[in-house]
What does this fold into?
Amino acid sequence: MENKKTGKIIALIVAIVIVVAGASVGVMAARGVFSSGKQEAFDLLAQAGDKLSESPINDYLGYAELTKSMNEESSMIDMQISNLQLDPTIAPTGVDLSEFTAELGSQYDVKEQKTNVTLNIAKGGSTLSANIYEDKDKMIVSVPELVNGKVFQLDPKMGESVSSQANMQTLPSEDIKEFQEDIIEFFEKEIEKLKDDMSCEKLEDDKEGYQLTITKEAMDTMINDFVAFMEGQEKVVGWINSYAKTLGQTLPSSNGTENFDLISGLKTIAEELSKYTQDFTFSVYGENGNLTGLETVIAVENTPFTISLTFEGEKGNSTATLKISGQDASGTGSLTVVKKSMEGDTLDTALTADLSVNDISFGTLSFTESLSKADNGYSFIGTVSSMGSELANFTCTGSVKDLKPGSYVDVILDDVSLEVQGKKLFSLAIDTKIGKLDGSVEPPEGETVEVKSLTDYAPYATEIQMGIIKLMADWEISVPNLSDLTNLPNQS
It folds into this structure.
C-alpha cells in the first residue's frame, strides 16, 4: 500500500516538473527570451519552439486563438457519441448499444468560476439526463427524468469534497492568473541569468554553427532558485498540499510517515538532480538566419547517446527529424521521429516514430492528419506495426462544419474505429463542438431541496427507483435486483 501512495506522490511531483519544464520552454520559445540579439546562436535557438509546434491544420482551424480565448472567456464544449458498434466478444449481452446516443456538455465561466456539466443518454424517445452546476458557493444537481421539478443543493462541505476529488481547477481564477504571471516572470529572469553564464563559441567549419555550454553550477542554481520561488507561492503550494491530503498522500520520514509537503518533495528532487547535473554542451546550426538543427551527446550509465534535431523546408511545408542513437557492446539502437507538415489544397501533418536495433526495425508508430480546404473533409489515421506486420489501426473520418477560426469549430467524425490484428474492436460516430459561450452559466431550474446527508434523498427514493425501472423497460434492458432505496442509512 505504501508503494502505491509513494507512486502517487512521485506522479504528482513529476506532473509539476513537467509543467515547470513546459513553462520554461514556452518562455524561451514563445516570448523569444533567447532572441536578444546578443548572439546569432540565441536568435537561431528561439525558432525551435515554433518549428516543432507547426501544424497547418491547427492554424487553419484557429486552435491557438481558441485555446487562448477559452482560458480568458466563457466557453463551451459539447460531445455527442452515437452508433457504437462493438465486436461480439466484448459487447454486453442482450443490449444493442448502436441504438443509444450519449451527449456530454460543459459550460465554463473562467472569471466567475462557474461550471455547468450535462450528461444525456437516450434511446428512441426515452432519455436519462443529469445536470451538475457548481460555483464558489454551492453545487446543484438535477436529474429531471427521475425527480421532476426538483434540484438538489449540496451542503458546501459535500460540494467541496466532490469538487476536490473530481476537479483540480478549484483555485480562484485570480490566484491562477497571478501564479501564471509570476512563473513566467521567474523563468524570464532565470533564463537571462542562464544566458549570461552560458558560453558560446562559433564552430570553425560552419557558416552558422555555434557550440553552447551550460555549466553544472548554473543548472543547479536555477533548480534551487525554482524551489525558493515555489516557497513564496503560498496559495498554490497550500492548495496542492491540501489536495494531496484528500487523497491520503504521505511521505516517509524518520517517524514513519508524515503529511505530503510539496516544498519538502521539491527539495528532495533538487538534491537528487544535483547528483546528475553536469556541464551540458550542444551545437546549434543555421542557414541564412534559419535554424536547421541542434545536436548534443549525453552519457547514460557510461553509454554515450547522440541526440540530433534537424529542420528542413519552410513554414507550411517542413520536416523536423529527431534521432536518438546509442551503441554498446551488444550493438546499436536508435529512435527516429519524423514530423512533416504540408500545405496546399490539402493540409497534412504526419508523424512517424521508428525504433531500430542493429538497423532492424522493431516497431513503428505513425499518425497522418489531413484536412481538405475545398470541403473541410477531415481524416486521422494512426497505425502501429512491428517487424513488417500491422498490429493496430485507428481511423477517424469526417468533416469540419460551421468553422469560425479562433472562436468556434464543429468536428463531425462519422466513423471512429479501432482494428487490432485485423479485427475491428469498435466503431462509433462523434460530433464535437468547441467555442466561446453565448450567454452566462446558470444553474438548473426547479424547486431547491437542501441536501446535508444521504437521508435527505429518502423522500425521493421510490420516485428514483420507479424512474430507473421505467427507463430500463423503455430501453429493453433487464431490470437488476435494485436495493431498497427507501431504507437509506442515517448519515447525519
Summary: The first strand starts at residue 75 and ends at 86. DSSP finds eleven helices and 22 strands in the chain. The first helix runs from residue 2 to 30. The CA atoms of residues 179 and 233 lie 8 Å apart.
